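Entry for the shared binder. Reason: the reviewer on the internal report wants the predicted structure included alongside the sequence.
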Amino acid sequence: MKNNAVFSNKKWFLILHIELLLFSFGGVCSKMAAQNDFLSFWFIFWYALVILNLGIYAIVWQQIIKHLPLNTAYANKAVTIAWGILWGVLFFGEVVTWTKLIGAAIVIVGVIVVVMADE
């Protein structure tokens, strides 16, 4: 029975990280919208994706916090910093500096520490 609980937590942990990946993509949509004229087709398109993204996030987040400890779920939200760096490089040609990498590494280590403390 204990193995089932461990598998269930791992499943929800995976769902959490997929959800955080998708949630972080909302920042890309916001920045894409900001590059277009106000109320143009593309402005509305990108902001509609932001709203859709946030709606899906809200629903899935409620399910995640039913199945995972709250401090684990919230601590893992910090991982969106690393995704933000990746999206910046892929979509906007931003430069990754050592300070950004060190900062992201500190955040990820912090998340690992919090998650391991729960176990």
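Summary line for the report: The chain has one domain: 2-118.
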